[in-house]
Design goal:
GO terms for molecular function: ATP binding; ATP hydrolysis activity. This is Putative ABC transporter ATP-binding protein YxlF. Keywords: ATP-binding, Hydrolase, Nodulation, Nucleotide-binding, Transport. Its EC number is 3.6.3.-. Belongs to the ABC transporter superfamily. It is a single chain. The strands form two sheets. This protein has a six-stranded mixed sheet, with helices on both faces. The protein contains nine helices and ten strands. By secondary structure, it is of the alpha/beta class. It has two domains: 163 residues, P-loop containing nucleotide triphosphate hydrolases (Rossmann fold, 3-Layer(aba) Sandwich), CATH 3.40.50; 69 residues, no CATH class. α4 packs across α5. It is globular. The longest helix has 14 residues. The protein binds adenosine-5'-triphosphate.
Length: 240
Amino acid sequence: MLLQVDGLRKTFGRRVAVDGIGFSLDVGEIVGFLGPNGAGKTTTMRMIAGYLEPDEGVAKIFNIDVAQERRRAQERLGYLPEGAPLYGEMTPWTFLRFVAETRGMSREAARHAVRRAAQDARLGETIDQPIETLSKGYRRRVGLASALLHDPLLLILDEPTDGLDPNQRHAVRDLIRKLGEERGLIISTHSLEEVEAVCTRAIVIDQGRIVADKTPEALKEEHGSLERAFQTLTRGEERV
Ligand SMILES: Nc1ncnc2c1ncn2[C@@H]1O[C@H](COP(=O)(O)OP(=O)(O)OP(=O)(O)O)[C@@H](O)[C@H]1O
């Protein structure tokens, strides 16, 4: 099993952000986290990626407990946070080399890893262009490439197509599908169309809990459409 999550729980003050989330994931699966604003998607992803400690529960990547052996677990996953920071004046090449070296790779290994990640993220000609001059779509690909540098089998992407125009969205979705062939992916999205287009499984989260975990087709069949499923399964109350 690539990823096993059991009973994850996180509170911030009196607010329960994640309230007992559990699921598992295998290679070849692309899981979409769906849910209203504030449902707990990002908090769950951050706990799985080892950037936030759960109050309760465990996440294990290839049986490695993320909270107990954070570094070993993180070597096996790539995480693209929402609005990941990039250094605008650097080119993707220098930025990715920098990230690879801060990850402890030798110069030679870093060069090799950057070349492969740039190829996997389809950076093409933009590799030598300052990041601040790139379109949002290409900047997102630079972020993706940085998550792919160490060739992880698990990828966690927080709203990877948010803010992109339809063409760029299409291109990044193609990329996600391709990456998902040999890896396990979790993406969060507010786009039901995206879930239908790329996800093999949809996990609907509401108020910190999983309220559905099935294929997009099964959700559609049960509720008539994904939109209806979303409306029925989530309470739609606005959270801060
Ligand atoms: N660091 C924090 N401190 C306090 N509250 C937080 C913190 N991070 C998240 N929360 C709260 O936890 C709840 C879940 O937030 P989270 O960001 O996980 O939701 P989300 O499903 O990713 O939402 P969105 O779709 O808006 O990105 C929200 O009520 C949020 O305000």
